[in-house]
């Protein structure tokens, strides 16, 4: 393993963690699910930090990282909906945004364009979403619920921002 590939290996580890925390979710072991989900969330920030700090960004990483993000969020939201851990309407709004961003990324890629880099507001949205999910899993319900209601408008704003950027990139 070379240092150049380290961010990509970290991203692959995040993808491999998905079935692990989903398993614990389905088994009802929310503490273990929260632990592995938190580990996954940490790797999301670590891989990008290393790639940017050491100038190790790659084409594979630019494709793999957003794919891992979307698979992570979509899978976790589907489980949260299935287990009724968070209000369904919140899940549906966030899930619709994630699927929309995922499909927009695919369309952008099909047009031969680079993926749109996430904005600060998009990164903030995901960080708060990860935190809200972790709080709910740890039964810190008041703050978890509060954070979900904060995440929704930020999520919607970031989706609109992303849409405008995608539209401009495709039709420029």
Keywords:
172 residues; mainly alpha; Four Helix Bundle (Hemerythrin (Met), subunit A); 6 helices; 0% strand; globular
Biggest sheet overview: none
- When the domains are counted, the total is 1
Name of the CATH homologous superfamily:
CDP-alcohol phosphotransferase transmembrane (TM) domain
Shape: globular
The assigned structural class equals: mainly alpha
Tell me the number of helical segments per DSSP (H or I, 4 or more residues long).
6
> Within the CATH hierarchy, at the fold level, what is the topology?
Four Helix Bundle (Hemerythrin (Met), subunit A)
Distance between the termini: 40 Å
| Beta-strand proportion | under 5%
Number of strands: 0
Mean pLDDT: 85
Describe this entry's structure for a reader.
The chain has 172 residues and is mostly helical. It has a single domain (3-170), classed as CDP-alcohol phosphotransferase transmembrane (TM) domain (Four Helix Bundle (Hemerythrin (Met), subunit A)), CATH 1.20.120.1760. The chain has six helices and no strands. Helix 4 packs parallel to helix 6 (141-170). The longest helix is centred in the C-terminal third of the chain and has 30 residues, at 141-170. The protein is globular. The mean pLDDT is 85. InterPro entries: CDP-alcohol_PTase-I, CDP-OH_P_trans, CDP-OH_PTrfase_TM_dom, CDP_ALCOHOL_P_TRANSF_CS, Phosphatidylglycerol_P_synth. One of its GO terms (molecular function) is CDP-diacylglycerol-glycerol-3-phosphate 3-phosphatidyltransferase activity. This is CDP-diacylglycerol--glycerol-3-phosphate 3-phosphatidyltransferase.
């Amino acid at each position: 393993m070379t240092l150049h590939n380290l961010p990509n290996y970290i991203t692959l580890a995040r993808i491999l963690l998905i079935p692990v925390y989903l398993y614990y979710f389905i088994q009802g072991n929310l503490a273990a699910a929260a632990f592995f989900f938190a580990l996954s969330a940490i790797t999301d920030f670590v891989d990008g930090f290393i790639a940017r700090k050491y100038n190790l960004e790659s084409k594979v990483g630019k494709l793999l990282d957003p794919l891992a993000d979307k698979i992570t969020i979509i899978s976790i939201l589907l489980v949260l909906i299935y287990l009724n851990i968070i209000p369904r309407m919140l899940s549906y709004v966030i899930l619709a945004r994630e699927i929309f961003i995922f499909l927009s990324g695919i369309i952008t890629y099909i047009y031969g364009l680079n993926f749109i880099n996430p904005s600060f507001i998009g990164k903030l949205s995901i960080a708060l979403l990860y935190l809200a999910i972790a709080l709910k899993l740890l039964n810190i319900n008041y703050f978890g619920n509060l954070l979900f209601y904060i995440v929704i408008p930020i999520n919607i704003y970031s989706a609109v921002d992303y849409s405008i950027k995608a539209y401009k990139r495709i039709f420029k």
